């Protein structure tokens, strides 16, 4: 949760978050390597007795950490493997790169699909999982692609994240609004009606330091028909203009340019009626009843879209074929449907497997908008390092259009030109 971009996106942020005492209804049995939606083509392909493997991740809060240790321990016992789990604190990406440079990568590492997978895959330090028999059967194409680099599978996704609109039902009722907005115009209208002396209609991230602003802005751009690679597209202009209208109406606080991931605190604290946030909110208690809705679109009846992020397990490239096969088998065992559902219900992630997503929604109906958005979600990692530049341009344009009163079109043009 760095608060670097998304660590809760918890992989890089170390901010604490309170987890609800939600438990899976009944006991979810841990899956063996042949159960769940992911075939275990690697299991049984060799004798793994005596093989010792090291696993890295950097999610240091419970229940996530304890669950992962349990999954790997049980899978290792079944496969005859000895496994050592290490939780890495600090700048995880830098430590992965340092380990890659010194040829000391762990046998298995949990990787963010938008940053760490392409960084390591491009250096040739991750094993080709296709060659190790790992399958992406049971994954939506959009999810499978998260673990790929240049059409080769280098990491197996186990959980994904996208975003949705959360709204305070009590505040909606007080304003006489019965449904969440479905278009940009409705959002502007509703947000204005929801704004009072004590609360704002919406709370969005707008600063340029922790990465939250472009992550939460992206679904508005996509749902307006915009192309993330083209800041001059009509959809990009419409999305920036949406922020400008909300700001000009007073529905969006002038302080939003100072808010990052903490923008959600305005909503959880009852200071804003509408916010954008992720599936972790499903396991975080609030003092009010809330609803969850897809992103509004520019025009009625259009299909909303979101950005998709994920976490996947990669295997280090190495000459010891038995060890590589053992690592692949352990990853597939960890990726079982049962394990993914349990992690989702207790930790607030979306499972990677389609069958696990369905089971998750059955347990937590509020997760439906997140799951429904997965098939058409957009993976910005396909833009490579260009996305680092593009997202800064979008945030710059948002700030210019709101604070300085520049038109959305001009603000985007200036941002692209570096003015």
From TrEMBL:
InterPro entries noted in UniProt: SBP
Similarity comment: family membership: Belongs to the bacterial solute-binding protein 1 family.
Gene3D superfamilies referenced in this protein's UniProt entry, alphabetically: Periplasmic binding protein-like II
Record's keyword terms, sorted: Signal, Transport
Organism expressing this protein natively: Herbiconiux moechotypicola
Protein name: Sugar ABC transporter substrate-binding protein
Domain of life from the UniProt record: Bacteria
Keyword Signal: yes
Any one Pfam family match given in the protein's UniProt record, by short name: SBP_bac_8
N-terminal signal peptide: 1-25
């Amino acid at each position: 949760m760095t608060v670097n971009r998304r660590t809760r996106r918890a992989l890089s942020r170390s901010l604490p978050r309170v987890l609800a005492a939600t438990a899976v209804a009944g006991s979810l049995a841990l899956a063996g390597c042949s159960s769940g939606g992911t075939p275990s083509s690697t299991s049984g392909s060799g004798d793994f007795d005596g093989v010792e493997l090291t696993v890295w991740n950097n999610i240091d809060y419970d229940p996530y950490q304890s669950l992962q240790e349990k999954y790997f321990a049980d899978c290792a016992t079944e496969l005859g493997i000895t496994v050592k789990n290490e939780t890495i604190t600090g700048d995880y990406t830098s430590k992965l790169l340092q380990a890659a440079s010194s040829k000391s990568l762990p046998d298995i590492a949990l990787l963010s699909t938008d940053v760490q997978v392409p960084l390591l895959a491009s250096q040739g330090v991750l094993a080709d999982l296709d060659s190790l028999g790992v399958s992406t059967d049971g994954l939506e194409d959009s999810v499978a692609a998260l673990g790929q680099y240049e059409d080769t599978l280098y990491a197996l996704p186990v959980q994904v994240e996208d975003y949705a609109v959360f709204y305070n039902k009590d505040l909606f009722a007080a304003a006489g609004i019965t449904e969440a907005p479905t278009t940009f115009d409705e959002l502007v209208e509703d947000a204005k009606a929801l704004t009072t002396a004590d609360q704002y209609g919406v709370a969005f991230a707008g600063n340029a330091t922790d990465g939250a602003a472009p992550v939460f802005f992206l679904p508005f751009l996509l749902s307006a028909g915009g192309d993330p690679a083209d800041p001059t597209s009509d959809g990009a202009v419409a999305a920036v203009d949406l922020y400008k209208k909300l700001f000009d109406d007073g529905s969006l606080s002038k302080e939003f340019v100072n808010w990052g991931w903490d923008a959600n605190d305005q909503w959880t604290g009852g200071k804003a009626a509408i916010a954008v946030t992720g599936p972790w909110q499903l396991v975080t208690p609030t003092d009010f009843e809330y609803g969850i809705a897809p992103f509004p679109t520019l025009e009625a009846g259009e299909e909303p879209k979101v950005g998709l992020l994920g976490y996947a397990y990669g295997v280090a490239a190495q000459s010891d074929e038995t060890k590589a096969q053992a690592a692949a088998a352990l990853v597939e065992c960890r990726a079982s449907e049962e394990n993914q559902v349990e992690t989702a219900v207790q930790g607030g992630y979306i499972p990677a497997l389609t069958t696990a997503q369905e089971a998750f929604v059955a347990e937590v109906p509020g997760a439906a908008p997140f799951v429904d958005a997965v098939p058409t979600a957009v993976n910005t990692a396909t833009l490579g390092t260009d996305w680092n530049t593009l997202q800064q341009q979008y945030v710059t344009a948002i700030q210019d259009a709101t604070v300085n009163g520049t038109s959305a079109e001009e603000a985007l043009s200036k941002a692209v030109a570096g003015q």
